[in-house]
Design brief:
The chain is mostly helical and 383 residues long. The chain has a single domain, classed as Growth Hormone, Chain: A (Up-down Bundle), CATH 1.20.1250. 82% of the residues lie in helices and 0% in strands. Helix 2 runs antiparallel to helix 5 and helix 5 packs antiparallel against helix 14. The longest helix is centred in the N-terminal third of the chain and has 32 residues. The radius of gyration is 19 Å and the shape is globular. It starts with a helix and ends in a 6-residue tail after the last helix.
Amino acid sequence: MTAQPAIASLAAGPGERFSTRVAFFIAGLCMSAWAPLVPLAKARAQLDDGTLGLMLLGLGAGSILTMPLAGHLCSLRGCRFAIVLGTLLVCLTLPALATFSQPWLLAVAIVAFGAAMGLLDCAMNVQAVIVDKASDRPLMSGFHGLFSVGGIAGAAGMTALLSLGLAALPAVLCLVGLTLLLLWRSAPHLLPYGSEREGPPFAVPRGVVLFLGLLCFIVFLTEGAMLDWSGLFLIGERGMEPSWAGLGYAAFAATMTLGRLTGDAIVARLGGVRVVVLGGLLAAAGLALSLLLPGWPAALAGYALVGAGCANIVPVLFTAVGRQTSMPQRTAVPALISLGYAGILLGPALIGFAAHLVGLAWALAVLVLLMGLVAASGRFLKG
């Protein structure tokens, strides 16, 4: 029982920081690769918005199955085991998303992809909290920044390969090969342990953890909308060619990357409260711009503002959950991650149902109000 804190002090080494950044990059790379595949999958399986929304609900269902177990798996087998397992499962499911045309097979693949991403996302964030706490300087924004770098690489890379005439499956296999190479390079420095083993495997968030989790849910819901629906909005409402539709998420991810890579300095200067308030207002303004002005250039500019606004809200919230005392860290971190990432997985499905009823533009308009709520709630944060 006394060995683990001593071992945990080694988590601040350069190898551990490198492996954490690579894990975040891999997650962003694989998740964003799905964005250019969404319109292709919809057309290949001949789905309407409502059916697609129902299938996207499978992302959340798969994640719900694995996220509550991921923190426990990290404690039992270590972050390395959970991250490697999650990455390998992602690499197995991506080719299925690029090829399946039968709706039921595509639905199974989406559930499996959600389960794999849920395991990877939760495990890498458990490692990030351990490494960040062991360091003598803030690292959380930088870790999340590498997720955004992966997002740019995945969305822009897949878009480029598809625009060059490569079919979906060969394009995905190129990405899978890169992912496996990165995993092989970083695996030796992934943490062979997780958080403390005391306490239940997971717990329902309460108090300040619930408050932080709801804010994470909204921000991740907005990120999920950019991932799953920005391309369809650009094609259906702004007349963009399908092969270029991934630029919507790329614009969002680019400004988010810049914001997060400079995020530690921004948070140090403005403070966490101002970052959340100003970020929420900026994201709401960007969403409104994309919906109110005609033409795809305005939509891309709006998505860029959304990325800048959302960039450092989530790292601030993760830092806040590390400081709170209402729940033990053993259960608080997985609870926050599970509730927050449910937004990126469940939210887009709900947008799909709303789009089927009132149209995609009106469905996305709800996000303007929700990000305004995040901005209004920021003043209740401490620090």
